[in-house]
Amino acid sequence: MPPEMEIIEATNEELLLGFKLIKSPTDGFTDSVKFELKQTFADSSYARSITSLAVQWPWVASGGTDGRIFVYDMRTRKQSQIILSHAGRVNTLKFTPDLSLLLSGSDDGHMIATRVGSWTKEYDWQKAHAGQAVTHISCHPSSKLALSLGGDQVLNTWNLVNGCVAHKTNLKNKATLDFQTGCLSWSKQGDHFTLSGPLVLEIWGIENAHVMRRIEMPSKPICITWLDGNECLTGLDNGNIAWISLKDEDDTPVRIALSQPVI
């Protein structure tokens, strides 16, 4: 049996959906085991598209183009809170791993830390990226640091203990990123983080904030998840998934873990 899991999906049709992987009924004539996705949750509170999503049990938070953030308690499967902190599209949402804060970034230029449970503002960085849109946020496994990207093409490192900027890295001269920086994600141990450009994925080390590996990709990276401290999966906009390992040599070709046929 696969582990019990629930998939939360946000759609452009203003719907937030939940699905569980369950064992399908058998016909009694075969020993093969099949599984199917069963819908377990649905909410249509949004009047416009959902643009960001954060999931960490028991909370689900979703942000939309209207600036509202809806919070759901999955223990009761009901809406728990509506956060009205932003005046523009919510581009990114992240819970800290210790579930103390919900970080949000918006087109209004604000990056906000909301205290989980009381849902009150802990910090409001009104011009986190020189007043330009905050596009990406990633939290360190310690919950004490966060990274953010914005329209100013600066990578900010935030101290979440005192609410101050700890470090700034100007990415404007990074030709490989080509002003299309994305896929910001800390590794599981917090020793590395990723950044992407149109056809490249970079793995940075935090000790001296330099690029440890630069991997040319066959298509634009659009999302990433770390499996452990050395390996990650990268979703590409051509439908493929690339497997990246820090244990590989620098000239190792990209391994495609899943290939989608072109129709």
From TrEMBL:
It comes from the Eukaryota. Gene3D superfamilies: YVTN repeat-like/Quinoprotein amine dehydrogenase. It holds the Pfam family WD40. WD repeats lie at residues 83-111. The keyword Cytoplasm does not apply. Transmembrane segments: none annotated. The keyword Plastid does not apply. Keywords: WD repeat. SUPFAM superfamilies: WD40 repeat-like. InterPro entries: PAK1-Kinase_Regulator, WD40/YVTN_repeat-like_dom_sf, WD40_repeat_dom_sf, WD40_rpt. Negatively regulates the PAK1 kinase. PAK1 is a member of the PAK kinase family, which has been shown to play a positive role in the regulation of signaling pathways involving MAPK8 and RELA. PAK1 exists as an inactive homodimer, which is activated by binding of small GTPases such as CDC42 to an N-terminal regulatory domain. PAK1IP1 also binds to the N-terminus of PAK1, and inhibits the specific activation of PAK1 by CDC42. May be involved in ribosomal large subunit assembly. PANTHER family: P21-ACTIVATED PROTEIN KINASE-INTERACTING PROTEIN 1, PAK1 INTERACTING PROTEIN 1. This is CG9123. It comes from Drosophila melanogaster (Fruit fly).
